[in-house]
Write a structure and sequence with these properties.
Strand order of the largest sheet of chain A: 1-2-3-8-9-10-11-14-15-18-19-20-21-23-24-25
CATH topology of the largest domain in chain A: Porin
Distance between the termini of chain B: 57 Å
Number of helices of chain B: 2
CATH architecture of the largest domain in chain A: Beta Barrel
Order of helices and strands of chain B: HH
Shape of chain A: elongated
Shape of chain B: flat
Structural class of chain B: mainly alpha
Strand content of chain B: under 5%
Strand content of chain A: over 45%
Low-confidence stretches of chain A: 1-32
Largest interface: A-B, 105 and 45 residues
Number of strands of chain B: 0
Number of helices of chain A: 3
Distance between the termini of chain A: 20 Å
Largest sheet of chain B: none
Helix content of chain B: 40-55%
Oligomer: heterodimer
Mean pLDDT of chain A: 91
Low-confidence stretches of chain B: none
CATH class of the largest domain in chain A: Mainly Beta
């Protein structure tokens, strides 16, 4: 391995010492020349019970140019099908809804949570990132990413600088990103709080179509996101490191979910109409993240905690850990545990009362309501010859939405308005 | 009394901070591929996408960004 004069001697020593230790280090020293390509690929299945099913394929290619430059390119393709909770409440009677396109209807049986079953999409996302080591203590990176799905387009730029101190034991990083998203919903953007037009209420198709069109606006909407992150990474000891991040994110533009509705119910809890939701057009988010990672004799372990808060009053706590154990030099098992708890956004309403004045903003999307989620995962990985690695991951994810203190009137007490969502994640990955 | 305790605590933590870290030749364990912060970057990217789509908050570990209209 050739190192240029300005390369950090400590890094050279670290790499040299690494190459003397352990099977994995030997394998990488033998196979990973600085100019080598590194490819990671994975295919993942995500399936919810009776709801969304997704298949996501992801490929990442990394190319090093000497010791100073690194190009990273990623391509993601995913396909989604299935049903998603519309926001309407379960009722004792069968409910009929107009599809978002206005073409056709779907029904929900009594006692069932209304799910919009027209949900299917394919997304393609590509990103490229260039990292450059400017000096032994300064690094920089720039990147671009874009994604396209049927009703959504996103383009983003990001960049960052990194400075190391204290014999490379402390690293300070500052990064930022700007993302522009354009949203062009199927059937047009709903007028905020307009009432869903139902075919059965009209004598002719023309009358229905005219009423449906009154609930829609022409043209697309956009959303702009500015992100900033300050990060400190500290080596604590020969085996432990610690990272702390502060993130600030400012979003402005269209954040309403055009496919979500709210039930407007009377005193008996019976739905009178379905209204299209409306969310604020700005959001300022803060995140605090701490992580520690340790190199064990026969494994690796990490623990992290994240706190997020924003001006929608949606606060969350996340605890997460991964523990890997090497059964042999070639085979490992890994456990993943995650606990997440969030407090509802201030405009979250599971339903609206027909007699009450309309609020400025409201959404019945359970994903911004009170909720606790759990993840339990297992992964097995196998090192193959030539530095290749194959791994399998199976995880169980459960969401437990909760009532944050809303009085359930009449028949709403007879139904489960906050049903659990259970999902399985299965993934196969290959690296070489 | 409490001021003294706080002063001692600050002094102790500062001295602890200055001694944090290791010498370059002691970084063998930290240089392991599985100790990199992005050692499982595809898993992390896929997880971020799932939780971004299914929960009300996102980001923290890295930049949250936009870029998805997922349900």
């Amino acid at each position: 391995m050739q190192l240029k004069n300005r390369s950090n001697i400590s890094k050279a020593l670290a790499i040299a010492s690494c190459s003397l230790l352990g099977h994995s280090a030997q394998a990488s020293a033998n196979t990973e020349k600085p100019d080598d390509w590194k490819v990671d690929a994975a295919i993942m299945y995500y399936g919810e019970e009776d709801r969304v099913q997704a298949v996501e394929a992801i490929g990442n290619v990394q190319k090093a140019f000497g010791d100073e430059s690194l190009l990273d390119m990623k391509l993601v393709v995913d396909s989604l099908t299935g049903a998603s909770a519309s926001g309407a409440v379960a009722q004792s009677e069968t409910q009929t809804f107009t599809r978002p396109s206005g073409n056709g209807q779907y029904e929900t049986a009594s006692g069932e949570t209304p799910l919009d079953d027209t949900f299917h999409d394919t997304r393609v996302q590509a990103s490229a990132n260039w990292a450059e080591t400017l000096s032994p203590v300064w690094k920089t990176n720039v990147g671009v990413n874009g994604s396209k799905e049927f009703d959504y387009f996103s383009l983003g730029l990001n960049g960052g600088v990194e400075r190391s101190f204290n014999k490379d034991n402390t690293t300070l990083a500052l990064s930022g990103a700007y993302t522009f998203d354009a949203i062009d919903p199927v059937g047009g953007r709903p007028v905020a709080f307009s009432s869903m037009a139902l075919r059965a209420d009209y004598d002719t198709e023309e009358e229905y179509r005219a009423a449906f069109d009154m609930t829609r606006m022409a043209g697309s909407e956009d959303k702009k996101t500015m992100d900033m992150m300050l990060s400190v990474t500290q080596v604590l000891s020969r085996r432990w490191l610690f990272q702390a991040n502060y993130g600030l994110s400012s979003v402005s533009g269209y954040m309403t979910d055009p496919y979500k509705i709210l039930s407007q119910v009377d005193d008996t809890g019976t739905t009178q109409s379905y209204l299209y939701e409306n969310r604020p057009d700005s959001r300022l988010k803060h995140s605090f993240y701490m992580m520690t990672k340790g190199a064990l004799d026969a494994g690796v372990i990490d623990f992290s905690y994240r706190y997020t808060t924003d001006d929608w009053d949606l606060n969350s706590h996340t605890l997460e850990t991964h523990y890997r154990y090497y059964f042999s030099g070639r085979f490992y098992g890994q456990v993943h545990l995650r606990y997440y708890q969030q407090q509802a956004a201030n405009f979250y309403r599971p339903f609206l009362m027909a007699g009450d004045p309309l609020p400025e903003y409201a959404s019945a999307d359970y994903r911004i309501g009170d909720m606790t989620t759990y993840t339990l995962g297992l992964k097995f990985g196998q090192r193959l010859s030539g530095g290749h690695e194959m791994s399998y991951r199976l995880e169980y994810y459960q969401q437990n939405p909760e009532n944050s203190g809303f009085d359930l009137v009449g028949q709403l007490q007879d139904h489960d308005l906050f049903p659990e969502v259970k999902a399985i994640i299965a993934q196969v990955s290959y690296s070489f | 009394m409490s001021r003294t305790i706080i002063s001692i605590a600050i002094a102790v933590s500062l001295s602890a901070c200055s001694s944090l870290g290791v010498e370059p030749w002691e970084k063998d364990q930290l240089a392991r591929a599985d100790m990199a912060l992005d050692s499982e970057k595809l898993d992390l990217a896929l997880d971020d996408h799932i939780y971004f789509s299914k929960e009300g908050s996102s980001g923290g570990r890295s930049l949250a960004g936009g870029g998805c209209g997922c349900n």
